């Protein structure tokens, strides 16, 4: 399944800050450390040199990824027409048949965070929620079977 290119404004800013930090602060520091380690002589057994070169490759790989990804991401801002329905960026309070409550925010795949209850727009739960309203019912196929949820509340954070 292809991942979507949607992202919240704050999510885009977070990725952009990471890119700037890696390129303007972290990479020059590591480059200097590698240069200093190389000046010490034998590079084949120089741990600082070997680690530094590995870290530079990791940074360069992440910089390339972020540069390409930020070009294609589409920032989705809140719009008043979204009120009352579930769209990208929405917070949703769900309740299952057992009365258990869950809250999720629908975000882009680059910013999902289970610890914050942020789920990707590409997830089965988010796909089932899109376009629904309060008091609607959704059914989600999970590895353990179908789960039914009721939508109690929908709200948006205006960024």
Automatic annotation (TrEMBL):
Transmembrane segments: none annotated. Residues 82-156 form the Transcription elongation factor GreA/GreB C-terminal domain. Pfam families: GreA_GreB (PF01272), GreA_GreB_N (PF03449). InterPro entries: GreA/GreB_C_sf, TF_GreA/GreB_CS, Tscrpt_elong_fac_GreA/B, Tscrpt_elong_fac_GreA/B_C, Tscrpt_elong_fac_GreA/B_fam, Tscrpt_elong_fac_GreA/B_N, Tscrpt_elong_fac_GreA/B_N_sf, Tscrpt_elong_fac_GreB. The keyword NAD does not apply. It comes from the Bacteria. One of its GO terms (biological process) is DNA-templated transcription elongation. Residues 5-75 form the Transcription elongation factor GreA/GreB N-terminal domain. Keywords: DNA-binding, Elongation factor, Protein biosynthesis, Transcription, Transcription regulation. GO terms for molecular function: DNA binding; RNA polymerase binding; translation elongation factor activity. SUPFAM superfamilies: FKBP-like (SSF54534), GreA transcript cleavage protein, N-terminal domain (SSF46557). Belongs to the GreA/GreB family. GreB subfamily. Necessary for efficient RNA polymerase transcription elongation past template-encoded arresting sites. The arresting sites in DNA have the property of trapping a certain fraction of elongating RNA polymerases that pass through, resulting in locked ternary complexes. Cleavage of the nascent transcript by cleavage factors such as GreA or GreB allows the resumption of elongation from the new 3'terminus. GreB releases sequences of up to 9 nucleotides in length. Necessary for efficient RNA polymerase transcription elongation past template-encoded arresting sites. The arresting sites in DNA have the property of trapping a certain fraction of elongating RNA polymerases that pass through, resulting in locked ternary complexes. Cleavage of the nascent transcript by cleavage factors such as GreA or GreB allows the resumption of elongation from the new 3'terminus. GreA releases sequences of 2 to 3 nucleotides. This is Transcription elongation factor GreB. It comes from Haemophilus paraphrohaemolyticus.
